[in-house]
Amino acid sequence: MDVFWWILFSVNFILYGSTCFMIFKRKKFTSVSVRSPVLLIISIVGNFFVCQILILFRLFDSNDISSFYFFFRLMMIIPLVLRYERILRCCNIYKNNEKEDEKYLAKKRYLFQEKFYFKIMMIILLSLAIVLIVLYFIDMEDVEILLRFNLIYDFEDKDEEYHETIYKMNVLVWVCWNFLEQIVIILYLFRIVTNHLKEKIKVEIALSSLVWYIYQFICSVLSLYLKEDSIDKNSDLNLLLIVFSLIVHYSLLFINGIFPIILSFHYRTSLSYHFNPHLIGNLFLFLTNEDCYDTFYEYLKKIPDDKDKKGLFYLKLYTHIMKYKLNFTVNIDNQVEAANDLNDIYRIYFSHDNFSGNYIDTSIVTKIRTQFEGLHDRILPEIFDKALQFCFSKLGAFFDEFRKNKEYKRLYKRMKEYSYIHCKMCNTGLINQL
Q1: Letter string b/e over residues 80-98, b meaning 16 or more CB atoms within 10 A of that residue's CB
Q2: Which of 44, 225, 269, 432 has the fewest CB atoms in 10 Å of its CB?
Q3: Backbone angles phi, psi at 303, to 5 degrees
Q4: Which residues, other chains included, contact 199 with Cβ-Cβ below 8 Å and sequence gap of 6+?
Q5: Distance CA 299, CA 311 (A)
Q6: Longest Cα–Cα distance in the chain
Q7: What whole-number distance in Å separates Cα of residue 162 and Cα of residue 270?
Q8: Domains of the chain in sequence order
Q9: Does the predicted model carry a pTM greater than 0.85?
Q10: CA neighbours within 13 Å on the CB side: how many for 251?
C-alpha cells in the first residue's frame, strides 16, 4: 500500500508543477489574467504542500510533519480570498458613475492591481511563518501542537488529564478556525452570486467555495464527535479522512488551476463583455452576438401571431447562408465545407421536395434552382444573395416588434451591465486588453 502513496507523492510534483508552469506561460490570456495568475500560482503551491503533508502523514508516524499543515493551508486559502476580493472590487467601482471612476482610478489604481494583494498576502504569510518558527525554537509544544492536522499525539510521560486537555483545546481551535473560514466563504459566495459576473467565472468561484465549505463542515463535525481513542494512524477512519481531503484539494486544483488553462486554449477571451449595448439596435450586428441571437431565437419561437413560424424560418435560412458565405471566404483553399453547405441549403430550402414558395418569393426560388442546376459541382458564392436580402428584410420587421418586447429591454440591460464590467476590468488591469 505504501508504494501507491509514494507514486502519488511523486505524481503530485508533475501535476502541480506543470499546472503552475502553464498558468505562468499563459498569464496574458484573459481567462488566466482575470484570475490573478501570481496569487493563483501561490494558492496552488499551498495546495501542493498540503497534499504532500497528508501523504507523508500517512506514510510516517510523525506529528512533526503535520505541524506545517496550518501554514500551507493558509498559503492556499489566503490567495483564494484575495483573488475573490480583487475581482469584486474591480467590477464594482462606483456603480456606473464613470466620472467618479476616473477620479478614483487616478488616485487609487494600486488598490486594483495584483501586486497590492500580493503584498498583503506576503505580509500575512511572513508574519505567520515568524510566529511558527519562534514557537518551534522555544519549544512551546502546548501551543504548536494545536496547529497540527491530526488529533493523535505522543505525549510520552504526560498524565491522562493533560492529554485530555490538549485534545479538547485542539478540537476547539480547529472548530473555531473552520467556522471562521466558513463565514468568510459564505460572505464572498453571496457577494459573487449577486454580482453581474459572467457565468463561467461565477460558477467556478461558487463551486470552489462550496467544495471548501462542505469540506470544512465535515472536518468540524468529525472533530466534535470522534473520540480520541478511536483515531489511529493506520485506521480505516484515518485513511478515509486523508483520501477525502486529497479529493477535495485535487478538485480545487482542477477548478481554480486546470480549468482556466483549458479555457485559454479554447477562447481568446473567456468574457463576452466586449459587445457594446448601443450596437444591438443594428440587426446585422445584433445577430453576430451569441447572447442576442439566442434571445431573439427564443422570442421568435414564442410569437403567438406567427403560427407558421416564418420568423424562425427566415432566421435559420439567414444563418445558414451566412455560414456558407463565411466558409467560402475563410477556407478559400479548401472549398469542401462550403460546397457541402451549398448543397445542404439547396436541399433543405429550395429543392422541389422542400418548396419554400410560401416563405420566399417564387421568382427568387426559380432563379436559385436555375443557377444551381447549371453549377455542375462548381461553387457560386452569390447564388443565395437574393434570398439572404429577402430574409434580412423580413427579419427586420420581426426585429422591430422584438424591440418593443420586455425581453429586448432585459437583454439591453444585461448587455449594458456586461459592457460596464468589461470596461472596469480593462481599466483596473484585471484583464488584458487583447
Answers
A1: bbbbbebbeebbebeeeee
A2: 225
A3: -65, 120
A4: none
A5: 9
A6: 102
A7: 56
A8: 2-266 (1.20.1070), 277-428 (1.10.167.10)
A9: no
A10: 17
